[in-house]
Protein 1
Amino acid sequence: MSQKPTSDAKILIRSFGRRRTKGLRVTRASAMENVLPLVQIELPKGDKPVDPHSFFDAKVKEIWFEIGFGNGEHLLHQALNNPDIGMIGCEPFMNGVAALCVGIEEKKVKNIRVWPEDARLLMARLKPKSLDRLFLLHPDPWPKTRHHKRRFVQTETLDQIAQLLKPKAQFRMATDHPVLATWLLEKTYFHPAFRWTASSADDWRLPPEDWPETRYGQKGLKQGRPPVYLIFKRA
């Protein structure tokens, strides 16, 4: 089981997402029971920074980190196509964790580790400059003005991401919510630690070549919500 935050961690984070909305189907419940204990990240006690390479049994050349992986389609795709990369996925929504566990079991994936809690709790323990790539795909837009403070991307969060990314590491974001797209772009563009890589409209209208087509993305396109793809690099 993962190490829960303790008083010595000096972390106070309030999560607003739902942990579970419905009962798990037999296949997902079985995968949760059999797979999650094998891939769930365990943190040592205390507040000493942890090298994420230590989460993996085999040697990995880079660490890629996905925040809010949904049902895990993108995470699985990247893991299967980059077997020498250590993939860390964070998702507090247990139905999504269960779906990922099914995929890990079916495809016999070895290079994924899961943090089934708020990503910020794990980020607070990671060694600085230890991540080679970070994904934030379709985060909750929290459209009401009074809820904007709940959006994941804030100046303080970007400070933390900047501390964890290596120089020139890639930070990818995507959303099909136009107001949130403006928020993500402005917050990150004006943060001194990041540089937007776009040089033409296609760079934010079209997905990167290694981007898989997911059910969520297909649904958005059918409903007239084309995604915006924002790719930044750590300065």
Protein 2
Amino acid sequence: MSAIETTNGSRDRLASCKRVVVKVGSSLLTGPNNGLQVAKIDAYATQIAQLAAAGYQVILVSSGAVAAGCLRLGWSERPQQVHLLQAAASVGQMGLVQSYESTLRKHGCGTAMIMLTHDDLADRQRYLNARATLNELLSLGVVPVINENDTVATDEIRFGDNDTLAALVTNLIEADLLIILTDVEGLMDSDPRTNTGAQRVRVAASTDPALSALAGDSVGALGRGGMVTKIRAARLAARSGAHTLIASGETPDVLPQLLAKNDLGTLLVAELTPMTARKRWIAGQLRAKGDLVVDLGAATALRKRGVSLLAAGVVEVQGDFLRGDVVRCVTAQGEAIAQGLINYASTEVNLLRGLSSDSFMAAIGYSAEPELMHADNLVLL
């Protein structure tokens, strides 16, 4: 039986969602003749500020730079040539950022502009650096505004659409929920352009293969995304355990309404919690890049309490690994206890082993994290 439902499904699972990625599409932010619709940007920024005040950590992925630039340059359609896209992005980005920043500042929210390319998330070091920066911004109460770096991107390193970018950012910062705002009320069970009786799909499993048959292509002249890319984004987000809501950005106060569990849009459900998905991925890595030999106290703490691994408990480093690689924790007898994502390279761990975290700066010249492996990134074997 298909997981697709056209009756109201339970949204109680949204109650635990605190870290939210919001993606706003070009069709909502730009008009056919008047460039950026500042009033709409102001409305979305106001809603995001309300969510931040309510305790949510919100990351905004906003389209609109290329579309706004096209309109400012007098182009009626999105060009295909990369150099023209880059020119439009550089022109349009100015107004887009200014609009978000001014409204969020009025509501007491700090903002940060983050421009990403595919290489930033494909390269492990840049991926970890981007994640660390975003996590720090969120801890400071800042709202990151993210867009693809269209100004410097080439065909080979483009995400292709901001729906995909939003899903990758959701994975990157381990968000609980991805909200994709578009110009339709959600996923429909048939094409509303040809069937006036089309019904909104209220809830479905993100992995349901029947979803693909319901998706249509984008019809906008200035945008790239359609429902196909939104379903693909939901499936990407589900890999890290995040649910996805696809809803109309034309609905007043849509973001507070969605998080209040009102029956709007389409909820695409992830089968795993973010932590379960992450732990499963770590446990499934069969080729660790190295081993850390731990003392009896650290081995006992790992086995009985599942705590983070501290440098003080490491007595030997085996293998050559980099920050972010999968590394095992083993006893002096060679028994594997756990494995996880390491926060420092092997050369650095060799200098840190046996030390307390307040000695990291003196030993290697910097201190990224106080533990070698955080408990969230570590699984018992």
Protein 3
Amino acid sequence: MPELPEVQTIVNDLITSGLVGRRIIKAEVQWPRTIATSSVHRFCRLMRARRIERIERRGKYILMSLDDQQTLGVHLRMTGRFQWGALGESLDKHVHVALSIDDGRVLCFHDTRKFGRFYLVKEPLALLGNLGPEPLSPAFTVAVFKYRLAGRQRQIKPLLLDQTFLAGLGNIYVDEALWAARIHPMRASDSLNADEIEALYESIRRVLRQGIRHAGTTLGSGSNNFYSLGRARGGNASHLKVFRRTGAPCPRCRQQIRRIVVAQRSSHVCEHCQRQG
């Protein structure tokens, strides 16, 4: 599933492509379940002639603010991605929503697994209200992180994956941040001392910024991997330290990286650098 850096990369690419300020001529839906908040007919009617005022990200959601005070929220889930088409072209069978733009382009939502969702809402809080803070926001300080950890008694990895605790993190960047902070993913959150909390805070922000800087993480060449607009590959895979490097030497101590399961999630760890005790 695309995580914060991948979603931010797509937002950046949509903005760079000149989509902001363009008007939607029509919407076409080929897989009705993609539309989560209304009937397909109502969605297509409400999207017609709408001007895109702003595109931004919140957690793992892409948010397009429209000129009628509505917001189109898109969650990519496992395999959702955007690609450009042209007016009059036939749509690929995996394109479930197509937005025809007034400059002759068609913004296509491609999703082989069909888990991605579109939400057309008047009040974004109805969609985003349960999300935790943004880890790269200036308002998210180490003091805020310590406060949110206080009294929690969960394994640290599933806690960091919980979108109500912190928005935007997923398997890749949690594994990378925990390795960078030398914290085992099975450690209890209330066992972290002040120095470890500060190290984890800095590591989270550092690995996310690195992911954005390298336009996200694309692993392998399969169609289900992350691709940004125009099928652009992310370049962050070569900068990963532990994620999907099972059996490789740890870049820090040269011990073997192991794959373990934490709360039913595949996890990658150097158990020499990241002690459980």
Protein 4
Amino acid sequence: MLEFSGREAVVTGGTGALGRAVVGRLVGAGATVHVPVYAAEELDGFPYRQHEAVKLHEGLDLSVEADVAQLFGATTSLYTSIHVAGGFAMGAIASTSLDVWDQLMQINATTCFLSCREAVKSMEGREGRIVNVAARPVLVPTGQMTAYTASKAAVAALTLSLAEELSESSIWVNAIVPSIIDTPANRAAMPDADHSAWPKPDEIAETITFLASPQNSVTRGALVPVYGKS
């Protein structure tokens, strides 16, 4: 069993489908979890809203340096930082506007960069774990997703580079690489797909929390596929 008793974690995107699964596993293992919240409606139905081990930080924009610094500044002994926050858009490159490109880079790459940077500052001199979220199109190219894939490729490259930068420390950096995740939103968007083949948030959360745990004593610089049967 993973053990997080007495350890602090940050989970960006913690109110989403995958983020909730991660938060649940962490608090179940004894962690105190800091969750940033951009908009109040994200908390509708959030099952850990009143949980004593979950610290909510409302009104934060993870693409703004000061807001990310505020989030990580609220921690006192950060051990785990898991960066689930991100977004998706698809379309042929000819119809992809610069605004969409910039938005995807901001919501996926910039938020990850800032969160990694502040996590490293908070963990300096101590052991720690960082887990990012890339995407399957980075490893298995898919059409109609050029901008999205590029933004997630930045996450993957950041992960590999940072893992090497920190190789002589005790901070391990890894990323998971999911395919389409079995969430209500994805089912609604693709009602005719084989949903049984999609990996479930709880299943992916199991891999994330292992990589983010003290039990992960050797794995760093990995891009870990979590495709399920898809």
